[in-house]
Amino acid sequence: MKNVFFLLSVSEPFFSDCMRLFKKDARSKDVHLSCFSYCNKGDNDLSVFDYAVYFKDVLDSRKGFSVKECLQQAKRMEEEYQFVLSDLIHAERNFDRFGKQDAFRTAVVMALKIEEVHSLKPIEMVVSEGLDDFLSMFLYFFSKKNGVPFRYPVRSRIGTGLYLSDGPDGHVVKKSLNKKAKSMSEAEAYIENYLEEKVQPSYMVANRRFFKVASKQDILTFGKMLVLKDRNTTFHAYQNPSNALMKRVLRIINASRYASCLSKNEADLEALSDMGLKYFIYPLHFHPEASTLIKGRWINNQLQIIEFISKSLPSDCVLLVKEHKVSIGRRQRSFYNEVVKHHNVMLVSHKLNPHDLIKRSCGVVTISSSMGLEAIFHDKAVICFGDVFYNRISGVVNARNIAKMNDYVLKALGFKGYSKDEVRFLIHEIITSSAFPDKDFSPHKYAEEHCEVFLDLLSEDIDSVISGEALREEVA
Predict the structure, then answer these.
(1) What global pTM score does this model have?
(2) SS3 sequence, the chain?
(3) pLDDT score of 139 more than 70
(4) Fold match between 2-177+437-467 and 216-425?
């Protein structure tokens, strides 16, 4: 039996239901299902998996490892898997709850648990909820070293699609292309409609995470916190109810201070035009999350990026900074004060449609924002600090050396346009490889059809693993 390993995080019920559906398939008799769960045993029904490791197992095992032993194991892993462990640790926001030494020991023991599963029954395919934290990054390098398929679902930056990727930049896995291929003309029509309708990614128009003074969901969340047990033995260490209330009050205060700062420092686009000033746009990222910690692991200090760009802009050019709708109320006033202290940096309202802003701009400066892709659609320059799938397009300025920031800006100002064929091919790849449910997919609210969609995406890879064809597949 082939061991297919799952890394489960916040979407355990969805992945479990997907595998229950898979168990009805005749192929399942040849597949052993194993998993690592960030939750407590009993929080969700994981009986569909033949073998499960829980984060509490890590906490229990950690007691048996000294710092010296963990250092020895870490050095071995770095040599074996060809990574720097510290890089992976920096990709994990949940280590903040531990002390420095405990965070290091926890990371090493988490990796050792994966190796333990592999020693019991060799892992021949990895399916992760995402590539967005320490353990998923370790599994990426583990898969690369062992030559086994690594797959995780990616929310399409266009529409409501879901496709599979195998690398940190979130590119499409070509092996998972649907049999009903779409033509290049359909891709071109898709781009034209996207621009005409001023479409935005589904997660930028859904209001579930937008700032609210209060909502019904708050009451439900508060109730769940009150009855939650063993919160400290889950990887995400859910906060205490009192902390949740304090955070809500703080968000209200922060949102009010952001509104005040915006009113005093908002750019007048017409006045800029009358003065003959050009502008670039920097869309602030929600932080910390995969878009900054993983895709922007080379540089993700947004205040530094804004300062670097500010220093490199010619006198007839300014930088407009646009807040992420989800981040309203999450940043302190001091953050915005640092943004606007530069003479050539101003804020623009988060309510502005990005398409209208981009059309009049010189381009977009970003780590990995969807606005970078929208700028490509509008044939505008993109300076990209992160590792994201669209930076493979010729003409995107990949900023990796801060000392060359002046050159990056000059290159963007002299931008001549993208190859239409390259852009069409990128979108063709996404829409051909994606499953598009009728409604925006959420792993917390889904129907059986969503499970079927996800299994369809995995189907070809599972077949290859069962037959042995993909056992030595290269991971990107």
Answers:
(1) 0.91
(2) CEEEEEEECCCHHHHHHHHHHHHCCHHHHHEEEEEEECCCECCECCCCCCEEEEHHHHHHHHCCCCHHHHHHHHHHHHHHHCCCHHHHHHCCHHHHHCCHHHHHHHHHHHHHHHHHHHHHCCEEEEEECCCCCHHHHHHHHHHHHHCCCEEEEEECCCCCCEEEECCCCCCCCHHHCCCCCCCHHHHHHHHHHHHHCCCCCHHHHCCCCCCCCCCHHHHHHHHHHHHCCCHHHCCCCCCCHHHHHHHHHHHHHHHHHHHHHHHHHECCHHHHHHCCCEEEEEECCCCCCHHHHCCCCCCCCHHHHHHHHHHHCCCCEEEEEECCHHHCCCCCHHHHHHHHCCCCEEEECCCCCHHHHHHCCCEEEECCCHHHHHHHHCCCEEEECCCCHHHHCCCCEECCCHHHHHHHHHHHHCCCCCCHHHHHHHHHHHHHHCECCCCCCECCECCHHHHHHHHHHHHHHHHHHHHCCCCCCCCC
(3) yes
(4) yes
